[in-house]
Write a structure and sequence with these properties.
The protein has about 260 residues and is of the alpha/beta class. The protein has helices at about 35-40, 50-60, 70-75, 80-95, 135-140, 165-170, 175-180, 185, 190-195, 210, 215, 230-245; strands at about 1-5, 10-15, 25-30, 65-70, 100, 145-150, 155-160. Strands 2-1-4-3-5-6-7 form a seven-stranded mixed sheet, sandwiched between helices. Helix 5 (about 135-140) links the parallel strand 5 and strand 6 (about 145-150). The longest helix is centred in the middle third of the chain and has 17 residues, at about 80-95. It comes from Cenococcum geophilum 1.58. This is HET-domain-containing protein.
């Protein structure tokens, strides 16, 4: 696992998960400019660095000096690195000391009126954030022990457990899953219920709609970009069935 040192802005590698220092983890929607793994190697901070710096600053307020951010801690050019990271991601979010959810499209305050976007380019309200419609953020919402939500200006909006009722209405995720952080709470819900939480969520790569669900069922499988959504989803269904022999999993359509 690679972590970004917030004081040196250098990546450090930890071979054993038990040796990792306390770390914060970022959940966010990718924007046009992001700091990549290659950017950090080249010490190029010309684009997207403000998000990284503000994330580090927020973590340091909790006494945490290591950060995991998918855009720069994963070598996207390495298929093996990407596959290993995707299969480990649920556990990484689970084990984080702090999970920061950055909602770049939310204006300051939980009760900011919703607006029509993207045509206006204006900021919207909490309920309207794109963060709630993305595939990967489903596990990033559920896996951590707690989630701290920040708006575009890095002002704290609230924490998941206290916003559980509101988030449940937005996402259709059962409120107890959002209030508690025991894995037993998640496992008490059926395969169908957990799959239903992903309905309507979108990913940039079609296969990620399947890969982003692995952690919710505690299954692992190789990632094969280019196989297409149907093939990826069918492989996921087989892995889920092996863990939870419930034929209803095959009733779900990948689309």
């Amino acid at each position: 696992m690679r972590l970004l040192n917030s004081r040196t802005f250098k990546l450090e590698t930890f071979q054993n998960v038990t040796e990792t220092p306390p770390y914060a983890i970022l959940s966010h929607r990718w924007e046009e400019e992001e700091v990549t793994f290659d950017d950090l190697q080249e010490r190029d901070y010309s684009k997207g660095f403000l998000k990284v710096a503000n994330c580090c600053k927020a973590a340091e307020q909790f006494g945490i000096f290591y950060i995991w951010i998918d855009t720069c801690c994963i070598n996207q050019n390495s298929s093996s690195d990407l596959s290993e990271s995707i299969n480990s991601m649920f556990a990484w979010y689970r084990n984080a000391r702090l999970c920061i959810a950055y909602l770049f499209d939310v204006a300051q305050g939980l009760n900011t009126p919703q607006t029509i976007r993207p045509t206006t380019g204006r900021l919207g309200g909490f309920n309207d954030s794109q963060w709630f419609s993305r595939g990967w953020t489903l596990q990033e919402l559920i896996a951590p022990k707690e989630v701290w939500f920040y708006d575009k200006h890095w002002k704290l909006l609230g924490i998941r457990s206290r916003l559980a009722s509101r988030i449940s209405k937005i996402t259709r995720i059962a409120e107890p899953v959002l209030q508690k952080h025991q894995l037993e709470e998640l496992q008490s819900f059926s395969v169908s219920a957990r799959l239903s939480w992903a309905a309507g969520r979108q990913t940039t790569r079609s296969e990620d709609r399947a890969y982003s669900l692995m952690g919710l069922f505690g299954v692992n499988m190789p990632t094969i970009y280019g196989e297409g959504l149907k093939a990826a989803f069918f492989r996921l269904q087989k892995e889920i069935f092996n863990a939870f022999p419930d034929h209803s999993v095959f009733a779900w359509e990948s689309g």
